[in-house]
Amino acid sequence: MNQNIGVVVFPGSNCEKDAMEALADLGATPLLLWHADSDLQGVDAVVIPGGFAHGDYLRPGAIARFSPAMEAIIDFAHNGGPVLGICNGFQVLTEAGLLPGALQKNAGLKFLCKEVELQVESTNSVLTNMTSKGQTLRIPINHFEGNFTCTDETLIELQSQDQIILTYRENPNGSMANIAGICNTTRNVVGLMPHPERACHTLLGSTDGRILLESFIQGAHAAV
Amino acid sequence: MDDQLHRSLGLTDDELAKIIEILGRDPNHLELAMYSVMWSEHCSYKSSRIHLKRLPTEGKNVLVGPGENAGVIDVGDGIAIALRIESHNHPSYIEPYQGAATGVGGIIRDIFTMGARPIAIMDPLRFGPLEDARSRWVAEGVVSGISGYGNSVGVPNVGGEIVFDETYKGNPLVNVLCVGILPKERLVLGQASGIGNLAVLLGSTTGRDGIGGVSVLASAGFGDEEEDAEKRPSVQVGDPFEEKRLIEACLELLDEGLVVGIQDLGGAGLACAASETASRGGVGMDFNVSAVPQRESGMQPFEIMTSESQERMLAIVEPENLEQVFAICNKWEIRSSVVGKVTPSGALRIVDDFDGEVLGEVPAASLHEDAPLYERPISEPDDMDTAITDQATTLSGPEKIEDDLFDLLMSPQWATSQYDSQLFLNTVVGPGSNAAVLRLKHPTSGEDTGRGMALTTDGNHRWCAINPRIGSAMTVAESVLNLACVGAVPQALVNCLNFGNPENPVVMWQLSEAVDGMAEACNAFDLPVVGGNVSLYNESQGTNIDPTPIVGVIGLINDLSKAPPGLTWNDGDRIILLGPEANGLNGSAWAFMKGHRRGSLDPIDFDLHKRVCALTRDLVTKELVTGLHDISTGGLGVSAAEMAINSGVGCTLARTPDHIAFFSESPSRVILAVNPELLTEVEQLAAEYDVPHERIGLAHGEIFTVKNLLTVPVKDLQEKWDNRLSDALDGGTTQG
Amino acid sequence: MVYDACVEVKLREGIADPQGSTIEKATDNLGFAGITNVRVGKCIRFQVEAGDEEEAKNIVSELCDRFLTNPVIEEAVIEIQVVG
After folding, report:
1. Which conformational region is residue B716 in: left (phi greater than 0), alpha (psi within -120 to 50 degrees), or beta?
2. For C32-65, what is each residue's pLDDT tens digit?
3. Of these residues, A15, A87, A150, A200, which one is catalytic?
4. Which of A5, A137, B100, B332 is the most buried (most CB within 10 A)?
């Protein structure tokens, strides 16, 4: 399983090396994709990592989504390519219109770094297809703007199309319907606020992130 | 010239005479402004230098000692670690968010200036009491400033301390420690060399923010006071996004070998960076003020040279590499401009265009090396004799000891959960334990060495108020024991000496004593001091803060294949207390809570302390304990309560006869949780190390019991612990 | 012509506003009675060159739709004035 997985770097990204370390540890071949470059170098899948792309000034993801790399990623996603947005990457994907909804400031108006319990709601996505429904995963969150918000109609759609893939057992940030992660209707684009790459090593307290990233690497394989 | 100008800039008549002697003429306004900032207390350490010399600074692993931007040690496997601690106390009182944010930004620049990637910060914080509205406002602002800047710039915050006490009511302490990692061979120093090389200014534009922040420029008149006040907002605003790009650009420049020296711009701005790089390299520099990108129009040369605008670096570049330097800066969207040329003269010449008018000329080295050195008067406090006889053990014991215990419990989580503590996948033990523990990965290959590094910061104003010498020694000892609790061997120490007004002889006595105590402890533990910072004039309305030397100590863990034991125990574990018997309550959190701030401290037994540390390290390394905790703030009571809270398991403690044994903070003591099957082995080992040890209880159930003293459900302890800060701080506070 | 533009970006009706409700709670605590409906937005000011006011409005409006607001949760109120 030697999938080439592109990890996009915007000025202000900071989790790109972490994502690469976790992906490499799981047997994939990660490579950095520079935001100003529209060539995705033939990767099998794309990860948009966490951080503060363009300082999160204006709104998280608002500037990043206009970069040449993102334009290429939008095409890639529309052609069925697996795309994973983690934290800031999730925000970028909603801004780019690849995923519905938006991420607002946490209800407590504070940055939150802590481990949370997630529940798998749907196994039908490129991120969750190796998990089982109802499974509990312990994975850290690390964000100020992770409060998932959308219109009532969008929420009904997300629910009816089984697009809510992960929820919080205890809502840390005010997200609607406890949403921690969603996918698009074709299930190849996923976004989540928690950081699976931070839960891939026993020394770091949890290995529950591995099954998600393994699913994603498998998905990259299937999409090739 | 105006014979009052030097005074309004904070220079004494003698200092002016010295400048005239150096220059052989009267200085002009620009030159005087540069001397005033460079000879300020903050930049020149003129009051403290004479004492700091007494600290041991040498060790076989020390690559760079005090005096550079950061200390650097060799940690093996071709890896070096840079560390430094700084204070940002005064700005944080005026504008807590930006004061703390720019403090974080400044220390991070000190680290990547050495060629190191910043990988961790820690922040020891001190605020006035929680009951005070203004102190709450300061605390909330400082924590969100550290969170806002640190998270965004992308350096994990792995620990620190948060302490509330009335001594900090008008003068909080915001210290920040930063650690960076670099391949040993890439170490760079902030010096200029090579005649004809260029000085390139990287990063933000230069504005009037923070002009003269290090001296009294900000408040001193330069003419019409109101007009000037408008011109000089002394609060700087941090831009973590600019800093993040600056880090990446500078590290890429260093990776590509495109700079010969690099220096961050901190206190005293360009005046400092230009003169420091030149004088370290034994050269001079022509500095073109008009080439500095400016944020506002009409800035005077002295303003440009002394501005403390944030997120700027000065790189020394060979002319043939200039295009490549510009290319990398463009990639990271970093502004870059040639502002200086290295000259053979030894002079720092400020020019208006390289072939234009010379606006000022001073020997570069004179701004540093000729700075005045003061041996300020020292005297013991007048009431020493009576103070030391006033023992806290004479205070009457509490009626309900559980209420006192509740009042001493405080989880730092309200603050620490606002910090990203996990970035870079190194954090094995984060905030709130004995010490932070990080995986040690090679900075370029990313390869895990299987070893770990441990970090702790400690400070105890209570001990130091009573006896600055013994208190400082005990502070160092506590750090060393904290590291032992995670199995780490201490390697190097940095300090941040927060004291009051140095013109007060008692404050100078405190500083001198603290340095001696720290030196004694460092010598005893074979611990080199690789860097430090001195923050003086911590006073408000004529009252000086309690002396607060803070230390940061880094240690190494030889085998980090498992996370070290934490503050926890299992049902059925035996509880063992290592170390000497509890001795008194002077300087304890309990005594201070009761308003008793006097007394005496017994000198620390260094030999015994070393044996306790060695034993503790051995117990951890051999995996003989379930959990452990050094005994510090709040004594055995708080340490045991923290273990109960963390594990959700109660205990029954015996052999703790009274509140003195329960709340005493006397040093060299550790509480251990031991599986009964390992008990004999643990006790044998303790005997081998000749360390006193005692079985004091059993972990079990859901109740925290101390025989004949108290019985309280663990969940009640947990509730007090969890809610203390959030109850006090989340209520919509105002600037009181 | 150069126009001063002021764009007020605010949350759409019905979108929860945690900053607004926190401020509202605080006004109560501080003893300011009767403060309700607190909403927090942001104001972005800039100058724009255009042939006439209509054109300036159109440019700013498109900028808001594409970039300055996230239409999922935000809307913009635009004010245009000739630089005087």
Report:
1. alpha
2. 889 998 999 999 999 999 999 999 999 999 999 9
3. A87
4. B100
Spatial distance between the Cα atoms of B215 and B718, rounded to a whole number of angstroms: 46
Catalytic-residue membership of A197? yes
Q: In chain C, which residues have their Cβ closer than 8 Å to the Cβ of B734? A: 30
* B333 to chain C, closest Cα gap in Å: 20
| Interface mutation vs chain B, best among C19, C23, C28, C29, most B CBs within 10 Å | C29
Its pTM stands at 0.94
DSSP secondary structure string, B475-515?
Answer: HHHHHHHHHHHTTPEEEEEEEEEE-S-TTSHHHHHHHHHHH
Q: What CATH number corresponds to the domain at position A105?
A: 3.40.50.880
Cβ separation of A198 and B422 shorter than 8 Å? yes
CA count, 13 A, side-chain hemisphere, B522: 26
Domain count, chain A: 1
For A169-179, the pLDDT digits (tens) are: 999 999 999 99
A143 reaches B (C-beta below 8 A): no
Q: What residue numbers bound the domain in which C39 lies?
A: 2-82
Written as one letter, the residue type at B49 is: R
Could you give the angle at which helices B606-621 and B679-688 cross, rounded to 10 degrees? 150
Q: Give residue-wise pLDDT tens across range B374-407.
A: 999 999 999 888 888 899 999 998 989 999 999 9
Which CATH number belongs to the domain containing residue C33 in this structure?
Answer: 3.30.1280.10
**Interface contact B356, partner A, CB < 8 A:** no
**Residue B387 near residue B506, CB atoms below 8 Å:** no
Closest of B348, B337, B180, B338 to residue B254, by C-alpha? B180
Give just the sign of the alpha carbon dihedral A204, A205, A207, A210: negative
pLDDT digits (tens, 9 = 90+) for B638-697: 999 999 999 999 999 998 999 999 999 999 999 999 999 999 999 999 999 999 999 999
In this complex, the residue of A111, A140, A202 whose CB is nearest that of residue B151 is A111
